[in-house]
Amino acid sequence: MTKTQKSHPLARLWNYAIPHRRAMVLASIYAILNRIFDLLPPLLIGAAVDTVVEKQDSLIARFGIIEVESQLVAIAGLTVIIWGLESIFEYLYQLAWRNLAQTLQHELRHDTYDHVQHLKLAYFEDRSTGGLLSVLNDDINQLERFLNVGAIDILHLLTTVTVIGGIFFYTAPEVAWMAMLPMPFIIWGSIYFQKSLAPKYAAVREQVGILNSYLANNLSGIATIKSFTSEKHELDRITHESDLYRLANESAIKRSSAFVPLIRVVIMSGFIAILIFGGRMALSGALAVGTYSVLIFITQRLLWPLTRLGDTLDLYQRSMASTERILDLLDADALLPDGETPLDLGLLRGEINLDSISFEYADTDAKSVIDNLTLNIPAGDTVGIVGSTGAGKTTLVKLLLRFYDVQKGSLRLDGYDLRDIKLEDLRKAIGFVSQDVYLFHGTVRENIAYGTFNASDEEIIKAAKIAEAHDFIVDLPQGYETIVGERGQKLSGGQRQRVSIARAVLKNPPVLILDEATSAVDNETEALIQRSLEKIAIGRTTIVIAHRLSTIRNADRIFVLEHGQLKEDGKHDELVAQKGIYARLWGVQTGLRKS
């Protein structure tokens, strides 16, 4: 659906809220009844004035209550009942609407986050984390504020106009039109302001996403900012983006703030008309004094609440801008199609075949990152994949994990095309240890057990020992219960890497991919990791993307890539003897040859 074909955000939200329509209708009924009983006291005031002025000829007397004092007691009794019902329905609608707002907020955040998790990796590479966070948090909260306040205000206003309009035309049709005269101007003004505010609040939501993106990036990179003493530079950037956000809001505020003063002038004309012309009718006897009192009171109740329409519209437009961003994210069609073939991990051998595969990233003019590549990796073998920067090594990992689909050829696991395998089963079958280790804020135990959440303490400790991580973990202040900090910042690079390896060991996958797992550690840590890798490679297919060639020296086979093509393959000694690309890389790393 193109942008011009999209339905209104409110209609899209209504369609989304189908399961809660009954609750919304019930909550609306409570709100309408509350406003009806809230509007009745002016009638009681008019009845009291009528009783005092007309005595035995009053409206109440027509119901058989002749005594004036009895009439006043009856009015007092009605007051108690009406105020009591008003309070009861206010409690009920507040309870219903607020719970409904919380439920919709929860479900929207749940559904949106779930949808985001299943989007293609390319979707995230083209967008900022801060912008997505803005939608998942700020925009959903903005919608909740409208449901809590704005929706009730609109219901109350519609009820007020309907009830009081009916009272006017029933009691004094001669002057009723005067009270209703401002309505078309107010409605027209509301529609005009709504249309003019919509793009301004869309700009506000867009700018807050950009600002959040900068904040998220800077908080993640605070160590880099500090090390380069760039605090002032980053403060200036944040100040600039925050000022743009302020200016976007200022433009919207200027427009929305003009609404109430203009509406007040229109409202005043209706009130003055009732005051003067209704008063003349009361003086001439054409209108009862009590009725005139009611008209004065309910004119205020009718017209003055309209001054809140500006605030309500302001809240409405903010929420609709947020709703559109939320639902656009939910509608994002960037999902990888799931396969239908399940995998039995217990029977999986781990044979991998790449048959003439090609791949290039979208929106680039560069040639294919992977170009007509054919590889065969036997089940249970340990293979190394090497090559200079840009050779396509990391892209190959993304294809194996099916973050992307190959564009030509086929990539198979045990004879199954990866596109046919159920995505969840495929990724359960593959353990992945990245050079960019990501640890979650939590304990060491929780991070090792991540993905294998039901693992026992014994299994976690066994995995840590295989990964050469147990010894340093027990030396931590709280051992396995030590909090690692966001992204594992309280641990060293080597410690984070070994926790990551322990996580993969605990998963016990048939296929293990190590993407330059030793590229950022010292020699001693590399030796420890290398020893652990030799242990965990036994009995499984292991693919090692290597920067340090010493990591793959004992691999069953080594594939050398260049510009996405296979240039050499063989064992370490064979490749060194060929004096080709691999031999040159080996010479550079061992100091035997210069680059």
Note down, in words, how this protein is organized.
With 595 residues, the protein is α/β, with parallel strands linked by helices. Among the domains are: 311 residues, ABC transporter type 1, transmembrane domain (ABC transporter transmembrane region fold), CATH 1.20.1560; 71 residues, P-loop containing nucleotide triphosphate hydrolases (Rossmann fold). It has 22 helices and 10 strands. The protein has a 6-stranded mixed β-sheet, with helices on both faces. A 4-stranded antiparallel β-sheet has the order 2-1-4-5, with helices on one face. Strand 4 and strand 5 form a beta hairpin. Helix 1 crosses helix 13, helix 3 runs antiparallel to helix 12 and helix 6 runs antiparallel to helix 7. It is elongated. The two termini are 54 Å apart. The mean pLDDT is 80.
